[in-house]
Design goal:
Distance between the termini: 12 Å
Strand content: 15-25%
Number of helices: 15
Helix content: 25-40%
Number of strands: 14
Radius of gyration: 28 Å
Strand order of the largest sheet: 3-2-1-4-5-10-7-6
Structural class: alpha+beta
């Protein structure tokens, strides 16, 4: 239902009328709620354990997991985990935060947990590491964006032997990353520091990091343990120039408005206060020094890692973080979970888990389509490049099944539909006898002879 429409399970009864289900009997809204309530944390943990086994079939290769969180709004104020706070979608509703771990190789989300809506990103990673210890995952590298690179998070990863690649926030004055950039500015000016593959100028600094291996709350850190961290710095002059052009255009627009005595917007007033000053002879002028300071770290990105010495490999691992953004886009936009329509605390765990499974299935469909396109590009087979997972599922949802008392058959599956099944690596349905598993133990009504329903 979620894959076909959205996360509103109130549509379930009409959906069940035309869809082949494990049990012919439809579920009422109250029955759906009871189903969600029966999904307990131990059931979810069992699923995570199976995903861990799948990921660790090849123990020699590192498992690179993209980590990020997003906010999901709720119309209900009865849920324990719903809180008002910083909403990443600038939504005025209360929310809960959902954190995903996505396998960057397959693109599949393999773990999630939700937090109260007012829990900041920087606080979630400690719980995630604890969950990983529970999952007993080995040879794992966490890749995360800004917001997760706090000193506490780095120390927690080092203490728990979890490898990491974190994007460093450069907005704080006096931070270590800024100091390292200033120390290596000559290298960035050298064209030979540019990498021909990622098209960035690169410099790397090795830092001796001190931390407390056995921290105790309330006691000062001993900093008796050390680790080598690699700060990989990347500079893109194109990004710098774009930022410079944008700021210059804004400042000149403000200057023109002032000369013509036009009103400034609120944002323009802030820029005026920051970059202009009154000169006794020239009047209001742009302060070039302030502009230079504002642009000083534009175009730079710094990745800190305890394990990846090669800056290009670190950049590639970070660039593949789009997988987790893809998962969030699927969860919220494609599957309609930007609003969680649930007002029961017990049912929240189950509904979130079902939404997580739906996200994984949707991404699996998309991944198989991409793989099919790569393998059959030269063969001239069906071109699926413009077909979305939702469109393909919608087409296959029109495959009709005629069911009798002791068997069933499907409409003829031909043309594009056969290719869709082939692309998804799913067997084309055919005729067959009714199996005992497909008949409910206590059906409310007998199946109708010759009834057409969708698969």
């Amino acid at each position: 239902l979620i894959l076909n429409q959205n996360n509103n399970v109130s549509f379930y009864e009409s959906f069940a009328e035309t869809t082949r289900l494990p049990y012919p009997r439809a579920l009422s809204p109250s029955a759906v709620t009871r189903l969600f309530q029966r999904i307990e944390l131990r059931d979810v943990q069992r699923y995570f354990s199976l995903m861990r086994s799948y990921l660790q079939e090849d123990e020699d290769n590192k498992i690179i997991l993209a980590l990020d969180s997003t906010s999901i709004s709720s119309y209900s104020t009865n849920l324990t985990h719903i809180e008002y706070g910083k909403n990443k979608d600038d939504d005025a509703l209360p929310q809960l935060n959902v954190l995903f771990l996505v396998d960057q190789k397959s693109g599949l989300p393999i773990f999630y947990r939700f937090y109260d809506g007012n829990v900041p990103d920087v606080s979630t990673i400690r719980h995630t590491i604890a969950d990983q210890a529970l999952l007993n995952m080995k040879n794992v590298v966490l890749v995360a964006d800004k917001g997760y690179n706090s000193v506490k998070n780095i120390n927690d990863c080092l203490i728990n032997k979890v490898e990491f690649i974190f994007n460093v926030r450069l907005g704080t004055k006096g931070c270590l990353a800024r100091e390292l950039i200033d120390e290596h500015r000559k290298e960035f000016a050298d064209l030979n520091s540019g990498d021909p593959y990622i098209r960035k100028n690169i410099a790397t600094a090795k830092v001796n990091w001190k931390y407390d291996p056995r921290p105790v709350e309330g006691k000062p850190a001993s900093n008796s343990a050390t680790a080598e961290l690699y700060y990989h710095m990347f500079y893109d002059p194109v990004i710098y120039q774009e930022a410079a052009n944008k700021l210059t255009e804004s400042l000149l627009t403000i200057k023109k408005k002032l000369l013509e005595e036009e009103a400034l917007t609120e944002q323009e007033e802030e820029l005026k206060e920051k970059f202009f000053r009154n000169d006794k002879e020239k009047g209001l002028i742009i302060v070039n020094r302030r502009v230079d300071e504002s642009l000083k770290y534009k175009g730079f990105r710094v990745l800190v890692t305890d394990s990846e010495k090669d800056p290009v490999k670190a950049w590639t691992a970070y660039a593949d973080r789009w997988r987790v953004e893809d998962a969030f886009a699927t969860l919220k936009d494609r599957l309609g979970c930007n609003r969680i329509r649930c007002s029961d605390n017990k049912a929240l765990q189950g509904k979130t888990f079902v939404q997580f499974i739906a996200t994984g299935l949707s991404l699996m469909v998309r991944s198989r389509i991409r793989s099919y396109m790569r393998e059959n590009k030269k063969a001239g087979k069906l071109n699926l490049v413009y077909e979305s997972d939702s469109k393909i599922l919608q087409v296959l949802n029109n495959v009709m099944q005629t069911r009798f008392n002791h068997g069933y058959y499907f409409d003829e599956v031909a043309g594009k539909k056969i290719k869709y099944f082939e692309a998804l690596d799913v067997r084309v349905p055919g005729a067959g006898p009714e199996t005992p598993e497909e008949v409910p133990e206590e059906p409310e009504t007998e199946p109708l002879l010759g009834t057409d329903i969708e698969i």
